[in-house]
Amino acid sequence: MSRLLLLFQQKENRRLLSQWLAENYQLVAPSLDTDSEAISALSASDFDLCILDGTAFSQLEPWLKNQRQAAEPVFWPCVLLIARSDVNLATRQLWQSVDDLLTTPLEKIELQARLEVLLRARQFSRQLQQANLELQQADEMKSRFVSILTHEFRNPLNVVSGFVQLLERSQNDPAKQAFMLQRIRHSIGKLNELVEGALVYSRADVGKLKFEPGICHLTEFCQQLVADFKLSCSTPPHLYLELPEAVPPVYLDETLLHHILSNLLSNAVKYSSPESPVHLRVHFQPNQVVFEIQDQGIGIPLIDQPDLFESFHRASNAKEIAGTGLGLSIVKQCVDRHGGQITFESQPDVGTLFTVCLPAAYEQIDFDFQHH
């Protein structure tokens, strides 16, 4: 319900107007004689529209102008009610402070219609302001996104460039060549990871992140994921996969699941010491599969935990470690597309446990043998 401010010197007009409008609006109608200090403390942000008479306008015009300027760019409509005989007093300057002029006597239906038109204009104005704010935020995030990616791309590209030059000078040293090729492969893997992360983030940001579930054999999927992950690391991590003995086929989107687990594993290894263990555990509950990724790394400070899944947010104790701040945002988007949940427990200098629960129907596969 819209909130209106009534400023009338004449008590009877104030009473009558309040009686008319009380059925459809919330009203504040202070007395100009006794509440002058209270009126000066009022703010346009607390009201959707102001109605005042000629005496109140003469008395409060400077306050009115200030309030309208403070409300900009949002439209704050003001309506002046004056007697028909006083219309001659209207001047060009009047329209700097009011948006409509109504003369009394006045029909109730006409008054309400004029008010509704102005209130709708105010609503459109607020929606436009919100849209502008969202565009500004999107533009700022885009600039930040490009800046972060540019910075993150630079390091692996420099590594690749440097080792290619060294390879050209050490053609007769197989051991050195093998080491350099390993570093190049690792840097290329980081570049691919950055590109893939940027693509997933951009698709999620525009609502085009596809969800295409299918039959997933988790034993083979997780074993391959861990093997590929170890191969992509410059220093092989102490990464342990724990699976139940019987793992039924489940119905999941393997592409999104890969983004979830690879990002969580990458963070667990990145924010842990090289000799520290990282565990990926898989177990089943009724109608869902649960993944746990546990490390003994630097942990997440309590102050950073509420914003952990926000894009570009990085924990205060991780600023010196390379990263885009997109990984956990991507994870959350992929979990949400499954209709799942992600939670975590973390203590600084102790470690972090992420738990991902995804709804998953267990597939009973019937094989149809064709007889020829």
From TrEMBL:
UniProt entry keywords in alphabetical sequence: ATP-binding, Kinase, Nucleotide-binding, Phosphoprotein, Transferase, Two-component regulatory system
GO molecular function: ATP binding
Source organism, top-level taxon: Bacteria
Pfam families registered for this protein in UniProt: HATPase_c, HisKA
Gene3D superfamilies listed in its UniProt record: 1.10.287.130, 3.40.50.2300, Histidine kinase-like ATPase, C-terminal domain
Catalytic activity: ATP + protein L-histidine = ADP + protein N-phospho-L-histidine
Name of the protein described by the UniProt record: histidine kinase
Source species taxonomy: Bacteria, Bacillati, Cyanobacteriota, Cyanophyceae, Nodosilineales
